[in-house]
Design brief:
Length: 160
């Protein structure tokens, strides 16, 4: 194992596993933490670090070309805050989620018809949403669905 970085264990009935030394994992986490902090420092830098990030971002994440300028700013701000926080926890899931959400936003901006459909004004006001009320089993609305209504809805939609 000393010459091999990691071993991938392919499983038929579950996600694959990766086996590596603890030293390797610690080293990778250190690099991730350093990179996240550098990103955050560049974004906060008053000597042009944020401009460098804006300029190289389309090379690193090509889909950001479809984001309008204010959205790019918001994305960079969120990324520069989320990455170091996630790295400090050793959990990169928040960064992954952030990237997925912004990639989907870019997909919407890349498709003019979809963007128009999602940003068109809605003329109908469907009224106030009732506040959930506490109950012994948690929260419920004024009109809870019973099992028969749920079964009928599922049968109608999915033929179950």
């Amino acid at each position: 194992m000393s010459r091999v970085r990691a071993v991938r264990l392919r499983r038929r009935d579950a996600d694959d596993l990766v086996l590596m030394t603890a030293e390797r994992v610690e080293g990778e986490n250190e690099v991730i933490d350093l990179t996240a902090r550098l990103l955050a420092a560049l974004f906060r830098d008053e000597a042009g670090g944020a401009e460098i990030l804006r300029r190289v971002l389309p090379d690193v994440l090509p889909w950001t070309r479809f984001l309008p300028a204010p959205a790019v700013e918001e994305f960079l701000a969120s990324l520069s805050e989320t990455a170091p926080a996630a790295a400090s926890l050793g959990n990169l899931a928040p960064v992954t989620q952030l990237l997925v959400e912004w990639r989907h936003t870019a997909e919407i901006h890349a498709d003019p018809r979809l963007l128009a459909a999602l940003t068109a004004p809605r003329g109908n006001d469907f009224g106030p949403v009732p506040r959930p009320k506490p109950s012994a089993g948690g929260f419920h609305s004024d009109h809870p669905l019973d099992a028969e209504e749920i079964d009928a809805e599922l049968a109608g939609r999915f033929g179950t």
